[in-house]
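CO-FOLDING WORKSHEET

Operator: S.A.
Ligand of interest: zinc ion
Run index: 379
Mode: holo prediction, single chain
Checklist:
[x] sequence pasted
[x] SMILES validated
[ ] output reviewed
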Amino acid sequence: MVAVTYELIKTCKQTGARLGRVHTPHGSFDTPVFMPVGTLATVKTMSPEELEEIGANIILSNTYHLWLRPGQDIIKEAGGLHKFMNWKHSILTDSGGFQVFSLTDLRKIEERGVHFRSHISGEKLFLSPEKSMEIQNALGSDIMMAFDECPPYPADYKYMKNSVERTSRWAERCLSAHKRPDDQGLFGIIQGGEYEDLRKQSAKDLSSLDFPGYAIGGLSVGEPKEVMNHILEYTTPLLDTGKPRYLMGVGSPDSLIDGVIRGIDMFDCVLPTRIARNGTCMTSSGRLVVRNAKFARDFSPLDPNCDCHTCRNYSRAYLRHLIKADEILGLRLCSYHNLYFLLNLMEQVREAIKADRLGDFREEFFENYGFNKPNAKNF
Ligand SMILES: [Zn+2]
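OUTPUT RECEIVED:
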């Protein structure tokens, strides 16, 4: 039995974007999908009930963080991550690799794995393909990610080639170490930076291992958006059309739409919740910094075109006051709106694919959002 399967429902005649559905042991979700990030077994400020209310069917959690706190043994003892955090729908866990490469000091990479120090205690730790599988098997996520090397951006060709080859060897080791293939699907990660032949090699190596899904890694790490879009253009056609494609770490509205147009099905990012805690919101007419003084007496909703709980009940002036006063409710209401905004955007994207008009939708959305203006402010 394969734990995770993908059903391609249709492709948009105007753009080639894919409408589909992913089935996991904890239910199904429609794609393209945006996955809220619950780093420490919680999507910051949101209860699982609120996530259900806004229509989230899958969330992401971070292996590295849960390994350090509270530790996979406690989560296993609780009956797995779903039970521990009371989330009944699908969960994807990353491999821990990205955090090890971005958060920790004194890394030493060797063929066996990576030595590093905990960003919390300074304790010496070691993460390898086998260890990452052991932790993710204990967490019991529906979708696990292979442990890959995350090279810095930019990296020279020789470094990247070695790294891609190592990532392929590590992917094989992940497959052998994965103990629960019947109830957890393991996705491979395509690396290769901005080198087309290395992306090709990575896609070929990993496709031969027949993972139930593939992520495109090493993007959204500081490269210009045009570079990311170009890499996606030549990478997604290398992947099996019968399996989901996941673009890691992308969550700005323009990049979501442009990723879908290039054949991506799944996305995740901390962006909507992180900026919300700062009082920055995504709205249908662009980015809105609700803490700005000009909203002190603005009693209109955050986004007049949004029908979320926050926009139906609270004003910009009130949200500004809460954020300025560091009140927890302000963080909650802004996080709620931003996540709702992105989930709703993805629903509109799916409708547009259904109607073969995603290209038109993109134009309208970019125009209203202000992305077409010179010097448009993004995130
Ligand atoms: Zn709203």
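REVIEW:
The pocket of zinc ion is lined by residues 302-303, 306, 308, 310-311, 337, 340 (CB under 6 Å).
Residues 42 and 85 are 7 Å apart (CA to CA).
[x] output reviewed
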